[in-house]
Amino acid sequence: MMGGMGLRELKKQQTRQNISHQATRLFLRHGFDRVTIADVAAAAQVAKMTVTNYFPRKEDLALDLHEVFVAIPARTVADRPPGESALAALRRGFLDAVKRHDAVIGFSGPEFARMITESPALVARLREFHEEREDALAAVLAAETGAAPGDVLPRLVAAQLGGVLRVLFQESMRRTLDGDDHDAIEAALTEAGRAAFDLLEPALGDYAVRPGS
Prior knowledge:
Blueprint (H helix, E strand, L loop, with lengths): L1 H29 L6 H8 L3 H7 L4 H4 L3 H13 L7 H15 L9 H8 L2 H26 L7 H25 L4 H23 L9
């Protein structure tokens, strides 16, 4: 029984990955706006309904890291060690992601970056991702600081931290489109990231510090 469940989950994962792969291939070749769900279904050799079951919105076929993108800042803060502030946790997490050349913070090839920036629908969907992760971060900050319901402070802090992450993501995309390689982008984002988080340090350095064990 458990083995059967495992096989079914594996099959679902493989189907999802195949749909995502075929969609990305078509989007890069023809442009996001010119490719239909039917085109993706045909390429993946599945029914249109199967595609929409896995990806309810066409935009999410191209931006398949939605859940990870939204969750990472909140999870980074929630998992911070004792004595570390929310700001320090996000600084550490961002600089580690830069070293890994993580796609979630904008490391991608120029073709992928161009596909996103040339599609108004994808630009709009990416904007929603940024807003969703600010909301998720605000919820964690409220819980971590014991903020009262309706307290605006966690949302204000999340907006500042999210704004830094948004600008740094945009900088990564801009440099990718300008033809910079990953090593050059890493150097630029490391410098910009440190400067950006340093700007917030006087105001947020003591906010949401996890108590010692």
